[in-house]
Design brief:
about 180 residues, alpha/beta, Rossmann fold, four-stranded antiparallel beta sheet, binds guanosine-5'-monophosphate
């Protein structure tokens, strides 16, 4: 299937599933080398990271734990701007090596909020692993240490990513066909 329509938008296949899997294989190798013996805690950010988290941890033959959080985001007062809260985090993070699993890092605002929240719990380390990273859109100074695939500034779906609820189940990555270009 090389083209799909989701709601009112058309998408074309951009990265086939085999290439996504090969990129996750490589990333798993990097993480295994770094975290073997450290019993890392992987924290997947729902909803989008369910696919990446499952594909990654099944390739990691090291002792590790995995949990999931949701980011609840709402507008605070004018002075505080956007406020974010991590929902569902029950594990003790103090002294743990934490790896945040994100489906996609775009501007980096979400990563910034997650990092600020997690650091309050005094983990030994926090790193970010992303299935997809848009370097041209990134505005933060937090290093995105582990990236499966770098992509241009296009809107994409598939492999966990949605367009208004649809498309998360598509194998591979699809990008929007810009009909107004
Ligand atoms: P941020 O700008 O904070 O790095 O990304 C915020 C969120 O925007 C991501 O977690 C993701 O939910 C959404 N997002 C950013 N780029 C895309 C994209 O290309 N496709 C989809 N489906 N979501 C995206």
């Amino acid at each position: 299937m090389s083209k799909v329509r989701l709601h009112d938008k058309d998408f074309e296949l951009f990265i086939p599933e085999g290439e996504v899997h090969a990129a996750i294989d490589r990333l798993a190798g990097e993480l295994r080398a770094k975290y073997n013996g450290k019993r890392p805690l992987f924290i997947g950010v729902l909803n989008g990271a369910f696919y990446f988290a499952a594909e990654l941890v099944k390739r990691l033959d090291i002792e590790c734990e995995i949990t999931f959080v949701k980011v609840a985001s709402y507008h605070g007062t004018r002075s505080t701007g956007r406020v974010s809260e991590l929902i569902g985090l029950n594990e003790k993070l103090e002294g743990r090596h934490v790896v945040v699993l994100e489906d996609i890092v775009d501007t980096g605002n979400t990563v910034r909020h997650i990092m600020d929240s997690l650091l309050e719990h005094h983990p030994a380390s926090v790193s970010i692993a992303a299935l997809l990273f848009k370097p041209d859109a990134y505005k933060q100074d937090i290093p995105i240490e582990y990236v499966a695939v770098r992509i241009p500034n296009d809107f994409v779906v598939g492999s966990g990513l949605d367009h208004d609820g649809l498309g998360r189940n598509l194998p591979g990555i699809y990008r929007i066909i810009n009909t107004h270009a």
